[in-house]
Specification:
It contains 2 helices and 7 strands. By secondary structure, it is an alpha+beta fold. The strands form 2 sheets. The protein has a 5-stranded antiparallel beta sheet with strand order 4-3-2-1-5, with helices on one face.
Amino acid sequence: MKYVRCINNRKYFYFPEESRRQNDTILGLEIGQVYKLAPPDPNDQPDELRVIDGTGEDYVYPASYFEPFVPSDQRAEGVTVYLDPYVKGILYAEAIAAHKPVSALLREWIDERLDLPPATLHQTT
């Protein structure tokens, strides 16, 4: 498993001086969003996952906050190109991990794989 989808983003850890609020959520985790797993550190517990969250950094979260992200038979979703939800999620997770916008990652991928003139991908209409 390389990617996971967030199913819970409730804050689970408070410092002693913090007040607990019922709707506290974790900064960097969005329910339904796909995130890339980072390699575990030796001190990580079996019931924890190290995830590159929306901040672009890897943090340890309870494994129960995520579900495996696997391919599905759902229809493709449009971004600028049409992608199925699995590819779109991986693209988002890779962009966060690379500290780049999704569009920049797509341009790089297209540049690497297609023999297009250099200015083609950067023109606007």
